[in-house]
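Reviewer 2 asked us to include a model.

Predict the structure of this chain.
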Amino acid sequence: MLHVKEAKYRHDYIIWLRFNDGAEGEVDLADELEGEVFGPLKDINRFKSFKVDPILETIVWENGADLAPEFLYENVKIIA
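Predicted model (structure tokens):
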């Protein structure tokens, strides 16, 4: 099972992620910010406020938005 172990804001809508299998890379989420839950994250300050939830083991935002680690893994550009 995939889990996000660490995440850091890079720039724009790009987040660097490290997964429990050691893979790490960047994911651009600009195209995912649509709809009632994700739309408000187009505000860059809201977007940058994500954290790694220790229970869900993925990135989450205070408004309840989260993304499955599997989705993030499939869309990350692996750099290690």
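The mean pLDDT is 96. The domain at 4-78 is CATH 3.30.2020.10 (NE0471 N-terminal domain-like). We have added this to the supplementary material.
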